[in-house]
Design a protein that fits this description.
Largest sheet: 7 strands, mixed
Helix content: under 10%
Radius of gyration: 13 Å
Oligomer: single chain
């Protein structure tokens, strides 16, 4: 059974930092592209950052220079280090695992709330 479990969300003030974690089980983690998506109230889910199995990251323009995605294949965990958080970063953050040969897998999400 595949599970993606996010943790690390919370309520912070503008300018603060948070690190999200996504612990995976039931998949060959190292071959999957791991992604962090977010969905704010009334908005569509959007890709924030992704990292390939070969550790090549990619970021949405809105978070470049503020967020860093990383992975630890031995721990089967992906991370999203978020700094200089702003109220517009408030959303539920979801972890995603993607590989061409299987379906997408999703976590249940973790809430990040940034107060001004």
């Amino acid at each position: 059974q595949v599970q993606l479990v996010e943790s690390g969300g919370g309520l912070v003030q503008a300018g603060d930092s948070l690190r999200l974690s996504c612990a995976a089980s039931g998949i060959s983690f190292s071959v999957y592209r791991m992604g962090w998506y977010r969905q704010a109230p009334g908005k569509e889910r959007e890709l924030v950052a992704s990292i390939t199995g070969g550790n090549v990251p990619d970021y949405a323009d809105s978070v470049k220079g503020r967020f860093t995605i990383s992975r630890d294949n031995a721990k089967k965990t992906a991370y999203l280090q978020m700094s200089m958080l702003a109220p517009e970063d408030t959303a539920v953050y979801f972890c995603n695992a993607y590989w061409t040969y299987t379906k997408d897998y999703w976590g249940k999400g973790t809430q990040v709330t940034v107060s001004s």
